[in-house]
Amino acid sequence: MKFTCEKLQLQDAIASCIHAVSSKSTITALEGLLISAGEQHVTLSAYNFKTAIIKHFDATVYTPGSFVLNARIFYDIVRKLPDDIIEITIEDNFTTTIKSGVSEYNIIATSADEFPELPSCSKRNGISIKNNVMKSLIDQTVFAVSDNETKPIHTGCLFEVKENLITVVAVDGYRLALRKEEIENESGNDFKFVVPGDTLKDILRILPENEETSAIYPDKKHALFEIDNTVVITRLLEGEFLDYNRAIPQSSAVNLTIDVRNIKESIERVSLIISERLKNPIRCIFFDSSVKISCITALGKAYDEAPISFCPEQIEIGFNNKYIMDALKACTDETVSLGLTDGVSPAVIRPTEGDKYVYMVLPVRLKQA
Amino acid sequence: MKFTCEKLQLQDAIASCIHAVSSKSTITALEGLLISAGEQHVTLSAYNFKTAIIKHFDATVYTPGSFVLNARIFYDIVRKLPDDIIEITIEDNFTTTIKSGVSEYNIIATSADEFPELPSCSKRNGISIKNNVMKSLIDQTVFAVSDNETKPIHTGCLFEVKENLITVVAVDGYRLALRKEEIENESGNDFKFVVPGDTLKDILRILPENEETSAIYPDKKHALFEIDNTVVITRLLEGEFLDYNRAIPQSSAVNLTIDVRNIKESIERVSLIISERLKNPIRCIFFDSSVKISCITALGKAYDEAPISFCPEQIEIGFNNKYIMDALKACTDETVSLGLTDGVSPAVIRPTEGDKYVYMVLPVRLKQA
């Protein structure tokens, strides 16, 4: 196998694929990238048995072929080379030469036969989404995915497509995140599939923040994401996802308007004395025109306040500070609506206009003050 | 004790002192900062039995007093508070209240009696150095300090003052770094003292990059650095420092002019295949108008070249890549002079003009290629 290509194109391709490379594996080939030189382009593939990432780039191919190179060392070498043309030669005895200008590396490749077979996924019934919309759909839900493997279906995000509306939902037993957007659904079909949270985090790293359109092709066991000239194939999670429509309260006793930044800063300050290990809850007392936020831990006491729209009755409610912060951080508006009923009912954050997102956080029982 | 002060002044003072706070200690007070409120200012002190850092700042003191607060939690709280006036009250029962606007923290202080006595150091016989000069004197030598405790004297930098010339030297058995500068020596005396490398790294973090003047007051067992309104007192190391004048070869067989950036990039690329653990040396062959740099490790081979001024005879020499890189990184000039004699004699880097620095690196024996 022999080809030449531009350093930046190769570097970019490795950077996209490397997220799906196993960092430590007993199978050497899994720590590697499959390099396949075809007619006029080269394909890099990475696969960790959960996610496959495949990327094509332009190259001048002198001798086609397929080999596996250790991803880490390959990436390190390419990054350090000057922004110039790189020549890669891999002999049948696996001797590999990477050359650019006066620089030359000789390393050893692995046989492509040792690389696992990539999952196949049909490219029918696709839906098109703009990259920045896909980014926000994932980014604003994936944080709420469960890390508890006892209910595997909730370690992923539900993608639900009904006509031209996509709803992405994540839930972990203590909170729920939901995002909705209008999309182009060329297939005319409705779908429902659950993508592992880990894959979605990989996709976030690849997704450019632009108005270009990417596509998702859900299949039976896998889904294929086509983003620019990168293909991500992920296995889908199986099981019964929470009936989120029934889980979200349709109304609350009070609906307050809150300033997201103010309340985030107050919670952050109070959270300072909370240890990662003990997870003391924060106590919030909503009344009149402010929320009084406090916390008591082994370190001491912290107290803060933030303004709210008028709250006619006093509502005292405890939260896990991380969960309420994650929800507030996902809000893209300066002010949002916070629905509260009492100290044992979930808090529900919605936009003041429209219904693009819903963040629900369950309360934590407070000890008597 | 009760005082109010500006948040930024307090934050800045804690930031300076925190480097001398023990991060884990069986003595609670050592993880703390001593806060002493006097007439019109407050003093923060940190001391880890090696280095003491003392900083004054303006405050409105209502009740003087001295207490110890945990440095980490104190710093975290102050940083998160808004840029406003902070009020700190510590009661005799150690109840501490930190207030700013609507935010309030209640934590527990420790008695000042538990804080170790700060070392004393006379402020006579000082030398004055501009901050940016002191920074370069330390920054460009401290990297070569030994981390081998069997020869404690070499775990510090030698400061040698002769009339109006200061020479700072570090040596670790494999390399040597030397920097010289003209200074103002008001005392008229000559001195020699060795400051621990760890303290110098703390001083680097505090030293502003400006033309203001700081002072060093060496005493018998300690030295006092006065930088802006921060005082650093360090213990001095005892023992016989290497006679560096005898260690540095006065001349070499060839003196090449090298481009620092070019040769650094070549060494960096070749170093990619060197593992931290095995420390294979790089092989350099200087001849004619280039240096050919190569390395063979378990991962493979790397080869690179960089231009040099004419080298009439072939000199093959092995280096620990880190040591030669550290020396090149410390060079502030684009081109420097590299003195070489043969494969077993030290390489000596000097400026092409003047004698402000000398970096010497001992060669590593190479296996036959």
Report on the structure:
The structure is a homodimer of 369-residue chains. Chain A is an alpha+beta fold and 369 residues long. Chain A folds into 3 domains: 2-114, Roll (DNA Polymerase III, Chain A, domain 2), CATH 3.10.150; 127-245, DNA Polymerase III, subunit A, domain 2 (DNA Polymerase III, Chain A, domain 2, Roll), CATH 3.10.150.10; 249-361, Roll (DNA Polymerase III, Chain A, domain 2). In chain A, 18% of the residues lie in helices and 44% in strands. Chain A has helices at 7-17, 71-80, 131-139, 197-206, 244-247, 260-271, 321-330, and strands spanning 2-6, 32-37, 41-47, 51-58, 60-63, 65-70, 85-90, 95-100, 103-108, 110-111, 127-130, 156-162, 165-171, 175-182, 191-196, 213-218, 222-227, 230-235, 254-259, 282-297, 300-319, 335-340, 347-351, 357-361. In chain A, a hairpin with a 4-residue loop joins β7 and β8. Chain A is elongated and about 75 Å long. Chains A and B meet through α2, β9, α6 and β21 of A and α2, β9, α6 and β21 of B. β9 of chain A pairs antiparallel with β21 of chain B, so a sheet runs across the interface.
